[in-house]
């Protein structure tokens, strides 16, 4: 799962153009929004598209679980792993 965590961190940095940041700068369990990494709703849309493109995982904007899935790198990893059958 650490490999997937680092892939997701790199995807976040690349897709959101977080210059000067490395995967080590992102805490796997920290919130991605608000007081954590500080992402916003536009970032969520861009990240959702990047996840769809990279992993083939579609995250519905209407789903009540979306907020839970986007909570942290760890929660995104769990979603992607479950969709990929890992």
Structure characterization notes:
- This protein is mainly α and 86 residues long.
- Helices cover 51% and strands 0% of the residues.
- Helix 1 crosses helix 2 (41-55) and helix 1 (2-15) packs across helix 4 (73-83).
- The longest helix is centred in the middle third of the chain and has 15 residues, at 41-55.
- The chain is globular.
- The model has no long low-confidence stretch (mean pLDDT 91).
How is this structure best summarized?
By secondary structure, the protein is an all-alpha fold.
Task: Describe the secondary-structure layout.
Elements: H1 2-15, H2 41-55, H3 66-69, H4 73-83
Helix pairs in contact: 1-2, 1-4
The beta-strand count equals 0
The quaternary state of the protein chains shown equals single chain
Please report which band the strand proportion falls in: under 5%, 5-15%, 15-25%, 25-35%, 35-45% or over 45%.
Answer: under 5%
Helix content range: 40-55%
Sheet bearing the most strands, described?
none
Question: Rounded to an integer, what's the Rg over CA atoms?
Answer: 12 Å
Helix-strand category: mainly alpha
Report the order of strands and helices: HHHH
**Tally of alpha and pi helices:** 4
Which blocks of ≥5 consecutive residues have pLDDT under 50? none
Mean pLDDT: 91
The outline comes out as globular
End-to-end gap: 9 Å
